Amino acid sequence: MDTSKKMVVKQLTYSRLFNLNNFENEKIELQVELNDDDNIDMVLKGAREWVEANSLLVIRAEKKKNEEILSKLRYAKRIINDSSNQSCDEVVRCKDMMKIYEKTGVVPEDWKFDLPF
Q1: What is the total count of domains within the chain?
Q2: Is the same domain home to 116 and 74?
Q3: For residues 50, 104, 65 and 46, what is the CA-based torsion angle, rounded to 10 degrees?
Q4: 96 by DSSP, 3-state: which?
Q5: Does residue 22 form part of some domain?
Q6: pLDDT at residue 3 in the model
């Protein structure tokens, strides 16, 4: 066997099958044309990242996360707007969270509702 010849890769295909539960699946496949100077490992890494980022699982998770953030913001606003009927500690906590959100655009993930039960 002649090992002096170098293998030339012109195209890379990456696919993944995602289980969406309830007997549903989603297959995403990405086909990439390679240039002579492309690093195959980097192209494959990029293809994997693109497929992961565009799966319904990720989209649904982001949607759920956004809904949780909106829920926390609504709760905090309700507590602040009804501060005369709320505990002082909870009002301060909600105001602090809102300040963080207004400054950074992020609700701390460890911020929880202070439920009375």
Answers
A1: 2
A2: yes
A3: 10
A4: helix
A5: yes
A6: 63
